[in-house]
Task: inverse folding
C-alpha cells in the first residue's frame, strides 16, 4: 500500500518553511574551479550515501513537507549510479521538483537517461563563453564538451535549462551581454550568481563583484519582474526569449530570511546553512545503525529547529 504523505510544512524558529533539500551526492569533482565553495562541506569525506539511503532520506523529508530536491556535489555525474539515484528520488511520493546541478562534462552522455529516470530540469555551470577563460577558471579544457552537453540536454527535453554564471571581477564581467544573447538564442535561462564566501577573505576581495549595476540595468530593461519564493530571488523577463535570474546572497538579509532549503552533505549530514559548520546533524550513521523512519524524522526536525539566518 502506498504510504500516506503528510500534508505539513515544517518551519524553523524564524518562521521559514522547509520545502527544498539540496543534496550533495559526492565530493569528488573532475574540475578545479578556483572559487568553488564545495557546497560549504569542510570535511574531506570519501563516504557516500547509497541510492537506497538517499531515497530513504528523501522519503523522510517528503513526509515533513519537502517537495523540491536538488542534487549537487562535487560533480554529481561522476557517480556511476546517478541514474538510479534520480529514478529513486523522482518516485518518492510528494516530490514535485527534482533538479540537478552539473559542470556539464558528462551531460551529453547522461541527459537522456536522466530525463527518462524522472529528472525535470538541470543547471549547468558556465561562467564564460571563451574556451581559454573556461580552462583558466575550471582547470579543464572542456568548453566545447560542456556546450555539447547543454545542447543534448535541450534535445532530451530537460526544461528549463539554467546556465549558472558566477560573476568574477576581471574575468567574466565583460560577458554579460554575450551570455544573455547565448541563452536567448538557445532557449535557456541565465542565473547570474554573486561570488559567495563566508568571510571577506583574499579571494573574495580579489574577485567579488557587486551585482548592483547589472541588476539596475536588468530592472530598467525588464518587461516583467518575478520575485521567487526561494530567497526572494528576482527573475527579470527581458523579452519572450530571455529570462535572467539574479542570486545575491552576500550580506543580504532578505535572502536569508526567505531561505526555504536545507542541505545534506555527501556523507549524510543535514546542514542547516551553507556558511555554518557547527550545527550539522548526522543522518547516515543512525541509518547505518538501523534507525527507522520515525527516528530519522526526529533528527530532521532537530536540524530544522537549529536553523538560523546567517546574514541578519
Ligand atoms: N559541480 C556541479 C556544478 O558545478 O554545477 C555542482 C556543484 S557546484 C558547487 C554548484 C554551483 O555552485 C555551481 O553553479 C557553481 O558555479 C556554484 N558555486 C561554487 N562556488 C561558488 C561560490 N564561491 N560562489 C557562488 N557560487 C559558487
Ligand atoms: Fe566546484 Fe562544480 Fe567547479 Fe567542481 S565543477 S570545482 S563542484 S563548481
Result:
Amino acid at each position: 500500500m502506498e504510504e500516506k504523505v503528510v500534508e505539513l510544512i515544517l518551519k524553523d524558529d524564524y518562521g521559514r518553511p522547509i520545502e527544498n533539500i539540496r543534496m550533495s551526492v559526492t565530493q569528488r569533482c573532475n574540475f578545479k574551479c578556483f572559487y568553488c565553495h564545495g557546497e560549504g562541506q569542510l570535511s574531506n569525506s570519501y563516504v557516500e550515501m547509497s541510492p537506497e539511503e538517499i531515497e530513504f532520506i528523501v522519503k523522510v523529508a517528503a513526509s515533513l513537507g519537502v517537495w523540491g530536491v536538488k542534487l549537487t556535489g562535487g560533480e554529481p555525474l561522476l557517480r556511476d549510479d546517478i541514474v538510479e539515484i534520480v529514478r529513486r528520488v523522482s518516485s518518492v511520493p510528494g516530490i514535485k521538483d527534482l533538479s540537478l546541478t552539473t559542470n556539464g562534462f558528462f551531460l551529453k552522455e547522461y541527459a537522456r537517461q536522466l530525463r527518462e529516470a524522472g529528472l525535470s530540469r538541470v543547471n549547468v555551470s558556465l561562467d564564460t563563453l571563451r574556451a581559454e577563460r573556461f580552462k583558466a577558471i575550471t582547470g579543464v579544457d572542456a568548453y566545447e564538451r560542456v556546450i555539447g552537453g547543454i545542447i543534448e540536454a535541450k534535445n532530451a527535453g530537460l526544461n528549463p535549462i539554467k546556465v549558472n554564471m558566477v560573476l568574477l571581477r576581471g574575468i567574466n564581467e565583460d560577458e554579460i551581454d554575450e551570455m544573455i544573447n547565448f541563452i536567448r538564442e538557445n532557449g535557456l535561462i541565465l542565473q547570474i550568481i554573486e561570488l559567495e564566501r563566508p568571510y571577506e577573505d583574499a579571494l573574495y576581495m580579489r574577485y567579488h563583484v557587486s551585482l548592483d549595476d547589472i541588476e539596475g540595468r536588468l530592472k530598467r530593461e525588464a518587461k516583467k519582474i518575478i520575485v521567487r519564493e526561494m530567497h526572494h530571488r528576482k527573475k527579470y523577463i527581458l523579452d519572450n526569449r530571455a529570462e535572467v535570474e539574479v542570486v545575491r546572497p552576500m550580506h543580504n538579509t532578505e535572502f536569508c530570511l526567505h531561505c526555504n532549503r536545507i542541505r545534506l552533505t555527501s556523507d549524510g549530514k543535514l546542514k542547516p546553512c551553507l556558511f555554518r559548520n557547527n550545527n550539522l546533524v548526522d543522518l547516515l550513521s543512525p541509518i547505518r545503525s538501523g534507525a527507522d523512519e520515525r527516528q530519522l524524522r526526529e533528527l530532521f526536525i532537530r536540524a530544522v529547529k537549529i536553523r538560523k539566518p546567517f546574514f541578519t
The radius of gyration is 19 Å. The domain at 20-305 is CATH 3.20.20.70 (TIM Barrel).
